[in-house]
Amino acid sequence: MKKEELWLLIEKYADGKCNREEEIFVETYFENCQENNIQLPEEAAIIKSRMYGQIKKTIQKRARNLKLQKQRKVFLKIAAALLFIIGCGTVYKLLNKQEFYTETTALGEKKTISLPDGSVVSLNSATVLSYSSGFNEKNREVTLSGEAYFEVTHIKEKPFIVHTKHLNTKVLGTSFNINAYNGNHNAKVSVTTGKVNVYNTGAVNELLIKNEQLSYNIPNQKYTKEHRNSANDIAWKDNVILLDDIDLETASKILEKWFNVSIAIEGEGLKSKRIFGKYKNPILDDVLESLEFSIGIKALRTNNQIIIKKKNSS
After folding, report:
1. Which of 7, 173, 258, 271 is the most buried (most CB within 10 A)?
2. Most confident of 93-97, 160-164, 180-184
3. Domain containing 33: what range?
4. Burial status of residue 111 (CB atoms within 10 A of its CB: 0-12, 13-18, 19 or more)
């Protein structure tokens, strides 16, 4: 993404005119930039003033409209992050020093890209990956929101770092999967070859090797590290939906992204029902029929809207 495009996108966000995909990009990108602490040059004061006014106005407008306290806190947190960055001059640095490139996938879409260093990244649906024009100069850093599988070219003197909202993953040359969708309760890193260092500004600082996964619980800021078959975590690359002992609520989120649908679950206890299933080249109706049979539910579908109820409910 060129600096002019990034500037227009920031203004669009401040005015509340972004679609959800653009919002995800702006929020993830700026939250991952907070560690920078660069003083704003005098000649860039106009940028600070202009952005501050726009964001302040948007905060006031949205605060009046938002009824839920949780939503208000989320928005104010994002706004604070933006104001912090504007105040310390990072926006000026980003817009004037480098260009930025963004790769995105829509709901139901997947694609594979090659980075300037020869590394290959497979993007799952509803994913945003960004990197600067300075990538592969002194280091290699990308920002991710969503899920992606990385096959990193080995360059000893240039570490490869993936920044997500809650975790950073550092490697030299290896292959691994990161699942870090906004809105999920957990962010996960799974290694298929080599070794990675997963860390954040809190208590996380772990080395992972092949067939190890780190799962970070976002609400309580705790994590687990376990051995598991990493091939299961990248089944999506081969167009396979693997529902491996997960609850129906989590399975529904996977299906929503995979098929670009909206799923509502109605009925006491249904969300926590455990799901097992493997679907190669899946068709939505076939998956729903299988779930109906295996856990005793009824899936009512109208175009892209699906309601899941107990089988005996009306």
Report:
1. 258
2. 160-164
3. 3-97
4. middle
Place of tokens 């994913």: 127
Cβ-contact 288, 248 below 8 angstroms:
no
Q: What is the DSSP letter of 152?
A: P
The CATH code of the domain that includes 280 is 3.55.50.30
Alpha carbon of 64 to those of 10, 68, 73, 175: distances in Å? 22, 11, 13, 46
Alpha-carbon dihedral angle through residues 230, 232, 238, 240, given to the nearest 10 degrees: -170
More confident residue, 66 or 204: 204
Please check whether residue 113 is in contact with residue 144, taking contact to mean a CB–CB distance below 8 angstroms: no
Token digits of residue 230: 């990493």
The mean pLDDT of 155-168, rounded to a whole number, is: 92
Tokens of 87: 């105040």
Q: Domain boundary at 201, 233, 265, which?
A: 233
Domain count for the chain, please give it.
3
- Predicted TM-score (pTM) of the model is 0.69
3-class DSSP state of 265: strand
